[in-house]
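Email to the structure team, subject: Strictosidine synthase conserved region domain-containing protein model.

Hi all, the expression group asked for a predicted structure before they design truncation constructs. Nothing fancy, just the tokens so they can compare against earlier work. One-line instruction: predict Strictosidine synthase conserved region domain-containing protein, return tokens.
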Amino acid sequence: MTIVFNVLIKCREGCEGPHEHQRTEHECGRPLGLAFEKSTGDLYIADAYMGLLKVGREGGLANQVSTRQLDKPLRFTNAVEIDPRTGVVYFTDSSSVYQRRNYIGAIMSGDRTGRLMKYDPNTNQVTTLLSNLAFANGVVMSQNGDYLLVAETATSRVLRYWLNDRSVSKSHEKYEIFAEGLPGFPDNIKRCPRGGFWVGLNTKHSKLTKFTMSNAWLGRAALGLPVDWMKVHSYWAKYKGNGMAVRLSEGSGVISEVFQGTIGNKWISISEVEERDGTLWVGSVNTPYTGVYKI
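Reply from the structure team: attached below.
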């Protein structure tokens, strides 16, 4: 991740070394999602500020994928997934209004300008598949490639977008609610080798977050106060945060397994869970390390 971060821009002055990157991330870049196109070796990067980027198999400078045909520019690129059969790239833009350095505003305001996007490297075309999403976040493709799951962080739900028209009945839209009422804010989604999907929940809901989510006007009013809500959230995550992950069944989207810490040994937050060979690899945007847990 550090190597990718450091080659995002040609001039890296002020973007290296042990300093607070959050202050300069809008200038230096902030990679949030990574995915390899295995047939070519290309690495695609969803950078919150630089947009969708690509690095060739030999490495080097990341090049920006052109999105000039979009009616709105990318403002908060978040997650990326690649179809191994076609090489088509799917990614999310969390908000057309708020940037990552003020992502709390996107949640508190009830913003619904997030998008699910598609990039076809064969035609160099970028299209919008879903719009009006409440903080579009993680995206993953099903095992057989017939649908995508996309996390809506601000509504604590996961949507399913059908890629195969034959899977959609004439009476239904191309997307549907896959899981809702999740016990926290969903972040990244990963396939589980034992079946289903792991969803990282950045933090569990409290009575306050539940009340605020059901009363969007309260969040918008709070944003008008002379308060740095990003600092408030940072403090809360550090001292009061309680992340968890849930495993959703592939068919019905119900919670089949829960991963969380115990009292005195809880996870501050969980952004992503990757399962490999009986081990959970746990990542978080709020901690400078990766957790490892044997199932």
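The longest strand covers residues 125-133. The CA atoms of residues 15 and 28 lie 6 Å apart. Ping us if the truncation boundaries need rechecking.
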